[in-house]
Design goal:
With about 425 residues, the protein is an alpha+beta fold. It folds into 2 domains: about 5-210, Cytochrome Bc1 Complex, Chain A, domain 1 (2-Layer Sandwich); about 230-425, 2-Layer Sandwich (Cytochrome Bc1 Complex, Chain A, domain 1), CATH 3.30.830.10. The protein is built from 16 helices and 11 strands. It is globular and about 65 Å long.
Length: about 425
């Protein structure tokens, strides 16, 4: 069977993924780099994210801070960038006939960004306000607090956006050094999805990325150390009407084959409005507006978490309900009917999630950049279809243990709250 994508590695190590979509009227160019906040030190924490901002603030060819955005706006393009702990990405999505403009701009910022000192100082204010926004959004900030508790002073415990204190100290030289040592050929994956052939894509990348930096020294990160034998709790006091919490259990990394069973288990808990958490939290008790679960996996470690925002007085009840659902998965087999439902859900969501060029570009680029493998949607779903109820129970038994339990919250309850600690001790 022919693959719906083509993979090509250039002699310098730059990797290109082409996803031809003959019926698409748009094309997406996505450039991803294997770097993020876990590649930083405390002195430069936040520079990966700050650098992402600065890439749109002028190049030698487009020197003005608005030149890049004006040019992309003039063709009606969608464009943005994102930073995580393990990768950073830049994308432009536009009409097919404007692909050369998209490639010219995105290759320019990737190869020729200026990092103007004046623009750096201006952007410090923008990022400080972004940090303030996160701090004022408990449903978002609780994730940072939880991972900081889980990984402590290790790079995975750093906040991706950094702190205002560190951000204020950045100079142009910091960006230049990081840019040249992290943004290079062998550390980069480019995905092009749309009405374009593989040969066309190769020729265009050879043209537009001819000056990409070369580096034979591969990047590496500090492996995360995990030591835990009893539950850990962390409280972040804030005068709020709600308590926002994450109940999480240490799991495994994204290379582990059990990640697929974990993914199906996640759908059982929060895959849609008929999922277990939705039913228990919203339909039965009216406990929360949002409740969700997710596996958050990295190259060397990972965890499975349940998050919700609840009335302060009902936080203990919400915690009991969440723990009960974890216990149920570890002690009772999922019925064949429910298992079929979530697998059908996975098939449907995968189809919906791959409707446009940007969806396809990120789907394949993520896999290649992080795991250096690429499975088609059909191959992925075939693995999901083989997951059994026994697989789910085995994984639940493995991770839902007292010695792997972590709980962090933003609210008014203290870490030594008697009722909360009583619930945790029963577990």
């Amino acid at each position: 069977m022919n693959k719906p994508f083509d993979f090509h590695a250039f002699p310098n190590g730059l990797r290109l993924i082409t996803i031809p979509l003959a019926d698409s009227k748009s094309v997406t160019v996505l450039v991803m780099v294997a770097t993020g906040s876990r590649y930083e030190t405390p002195k430069i924490n936040g520079i990966s994210h700050f650098l992402e901002h600065m890439m749109f603030k002028g190049t030698t060819k487009r020197p003005g801070p608005m030149d890049i955005s004006r040019e992309l706006d003039s063709i009606g393009a969608e464009y943005n960038a994102f930073t995580s702990k393990e990768y950073t990405g830049y994308y432009v999505k536009c009409s097919t006939e404007k692909i050369d403009t998209a490639l010219d701009v995105i290759s320019d910022i990737f190869q020729n960004s200026k990092f103007d000192e004046k623009e750096i100082e201006t952007e410090k204010g923008v990022i400080s306000e972004e940090i303030n926004m996160y701090y004022d959004t408990p449903s978002r900030y609780i994730g940072d607090i939880f991972e900081s508790m889980l990984y402590k002073d290790q790079p995975l415990g750093y906040e991706t956006q950094g702190t205002k204190e560190v951000i204020r100290q950045f100079k142009r030289d910091d960006f230049a050094k990081y840019f040249h040592s992290h943004y290079f050929d062998k550390n980069t994956v480019i995905a092009i999805a749309g009405n374009i052939t593989t040969d066309e894509a190769k020729k265009k990348i050879e043209k537009y990325f001819a000056d990409i930096r070369d580096n034979d020294k591969p990047l590496s990160f500090i492996k995360t150390t995990e030591k835990q034998d009893k539950p850990e709790l962390h409280a972040h006091f804030k005068q709020t009407d709600q308590t926002h919490f994450i109940l999480g259990f240490r799991a495994f990394n994204y290379f582990d084959n059990d990640r697929h069973a974990l993914g199906v288990m996640n759908l059982i808990l929060s895959g849609g409005m008929s999922s277990r958490l939705w039913e228990e939290f919203r339909d039965k008790r009216g406990l929360a507006y949002y409740v969700r679960s997710s596996p958050d996996l990295y190259a060397d470690v990972g965890y499975f978490g349940i998050a919700a925002g609840v009335d302060n007085a009902r936080f203990p009840l919400a915690l009991e309900v969440a723990l009960e659902q974890c216990k149920k998965l570890a002690t009772e087999l999922v019925s064949e009917e429910e298992l079929k439902k979530v697998k059908d859900y996975a098939h449907g969501k995968t189809a919906i999630g791959l409707e446009s060029s940007d969806d396809f570009a990120s789907y394949y680029a993520d896999q290649e950049l992080l795991r250096r493998e690429m499975k088609t949607p059909e191959e992925y779903l075939a693995i999901i279809d083989k997951i059994t109820s026994d697989d789910i129970q085995r994984v639940a038994e493995e991770i839902f243990k007292s010695g792997k339990l972590n709980l962090a919250w933003i609210g008014q309850a203290k870490v030594d709250d008697i009722e909360i600690n009583k619930i945790i001790k029963k577990w």
